[in-house]
Write a structure and sequence with these properties.
The structure is a single chain. The protein is an alpha+beta fold and about 260 residues long. The protein has one domain. The chain contains seven helices and five strands. A five-stranded mixed beta sheet has the order 2-4-3-1-5. β3 and β4 form a beta hairpin. The chain is globular.
């Protein structure tokens, strides 16, 4: 994750509306939502729930490659765009780290611009192709609900600093989820290795070109950006958070700014 420095070019306004699923949603995204709803239902057996989560995760990764290939063939429009969003407190920086890990796994770029209006909320600017930002939005809003919900159910071990333990738990969750996302994306790329566009371009070349476009737009907007400092933690909840991240669903419902600041379109 990079930190902002200097004055960037003017960006689209911050978004804060509520987003709802509608009849125009891509059928594959609707399937992903249905799988996740099954996984999240309290009466679903754990084995079936985990199977649904894994299938939803795999479909999400394949969907991204499918959209990239369709756009490369001119069958759809999937232009590079960027959005600024507000990440609300509590735990605003840990939420920033969550959306950053998701963005990087999905070939997007994100920069942390600091405090929003001198308050506890944080502002980030994210760059990517439209379909990829749609996936980031879907994943972030779902994982944020799971992360904060799971944390609230965790008792702080006796003798531990509550804030330090909870922060380390959150970092464990974020890092585990990020690793799972990267693994799913890599698996989907391997499966699509033999796919080509109508002009003979490989999926690997299409994805590499898209990534370069996003990076160039990001660098043009923030030529003086610098890499953020490594995160350290003194709490002992990291392992528990890592385990919870391994159980998390990938995808889910959209929410408004009061919880996430949806990316929008």
């Amino acid at each position: 994750m990079s930190e902002g420095e200097g004055n960037p070019r003017k960006a689209p306004p911050l978004t804060n509306g509520r987003h709802h699923v509608n009849g125009n949603e891509n059928p594959k995204l609707a399937t992903i939502r249905a799988l996740l709803a099954r996984a999240e239902h309290p009466t679903t057996p754990e084995a079936e729930a985990e199977q649904s989560r894994q299938k939803a995760f795999a479909l999400m990764a394949k969907y991204g490659i499918e959209q990239a290939m369709l756009a490369a063939d001119g069958a759809t429009k999937d232009e590079p765009i960027d959005r600024q969003i507000v990440i609300d407190a509590p735990w605003a920086m840990e939420r920033v780290r969550l959306i950053n890990r998701i963005a990087l796994a999905l070939d997007c770029q994100l920069i942390h611009l600091g405090q929003h209006e001198n308050g506890p909320a944080r502002r980030v600017h994210i760059f990517g192709h439209r379909s990829d930002l749609e996936r980031v939005d879907l994943l972030y809003t779902s994982l944020l609900l799971q992360m904060t919900g799971s944390l609230s159910a965790q008792p702080v071990p006796y003798g531990q600093s509550p804030r330090a333990w909870r922060r380390s738990w959150l970092l464990g969750f974020v890092n585990r989820v990020g690793t799972r996302l990267e693994e799913a994306q890599q698996g989907a790329r391997e499966e699509a290795r033999s796919e080509t566009t109508a002009t003979g371009r490989s999926s690997a070349l299409v994805l590499a070109d898209r990534k370069t476009v996003v990076e160039n737009r990001y660098r043009a907007a923030y030529p003086r950006s610098r890499k953020g400092r490594a995160t350290t933690t003194r709490g002992t909840g990291y392992g528990d958070g890592w385990a919870a991240g391994g159980r998390a669903d990938i995808g889910g419902r959209r929410i408004g700014r009061s919880s996430a600041g949806a990316i929008g379109s």
